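Look over both lines before class:
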Amino acid sequence: MDIQFTEEQELLRSSVQRLLRDQYDFEARRKIVASEEGFSRTRWRAFAELGLLAAPFSEDAGGLGGGPLSTMIVMQEFGRHLVVEPFVETVVLAGGLIEQLGTSEQKQAFIPGIIDGSRIWALAWTERASRFDFANIATKARREGDDYVLSGEKTMVMAAPWADHLIVSARTAGDNRDRGGVSLFVVDRHAAGVNLQSFKTIDGRRAAEISLREVRGQLLGAEGEGVAALETCRDRAIGALCAEVVGAIGELNAATLDYSKTRKQFGTAIGSFQVLQHRMVDMFIAHQEALSLMQHLNLSLDAGDSGLSRLASGAKSKIGYAGKFVADQAVQLHGGMGMTDELNVGHYFKRISSINIQFGDPAFHVLRYAQLDAAA
């Protein structure tokens, strides 16, 4: 599959490529990751000024109406440059949930701050025992007046140290694993009772363990809609993350090919060895298959096709395995250099490894695909 982009989509892609080429090379990225905050607010504002944060939102919400295809374009370029800024967490996850579930007042209150880059969001749904299950939630929420009071623990909340607001899943009814008892809430990250333990992840980003103690939150959507909304949100997130992996795979293949032309053993370039040529052909095929499947998924998301969850799980598993294969081969073919911090190959490996466990690892999605296929 090869998408024929519109003139506006081509302009978006070329604009992102130019910005990242000029401001986000590998050395600039290393300095950003090593900084105290761990991401660049200057780059984040540049993304906003370029319209990247507005691109996926509908025009009714104040965005540019680009939908999943604009997200795909942005994330593929972000994957090529290992961008650490929280586009997925703020725009795709939180922004998507607000646009999907929020009242008109909530949309007017929250979405403009996302679009102009003044507010960063994070989604807090994972718990220590949840194992990719949106319904396995122990955090509780009880109603008090117009608001709710939340208590519980969330783990591995990506971008939480940078966030101004959180969207938190909590149980308003039912027992553990009851799908109909989970709701979503908007929480001020700096509110009383919100405690964070921040840490750096393997791919250089920031995440946090979050403790909620009698924290006031604002209901997003209706009670009991949490699991269904998160499942839809997961499909969108998979589309974005798969695009990022495809971008990373492309860069790994290019770097490995260039290295094989210059690295010599026994007086000749290693790219002339037939066994390594076969290996790199396999890497190229894995990239092309992943690219085609990623485009198919995002086209389906854009069109609102049926069976999206099954397609998303198929893409997550297939592209996850392809990403791991290419990353493994790239590191091995670069030899000892592939594991050094100074070379970008190892950083792509770590990022792909991190993406592979977000919203379910490849093995989880193989099983989920089979279950959805059997139920179809």
Observations:
- The two ends are 25 Å apart (CA to CA).
- The chain has a mean pLDDT of 94.
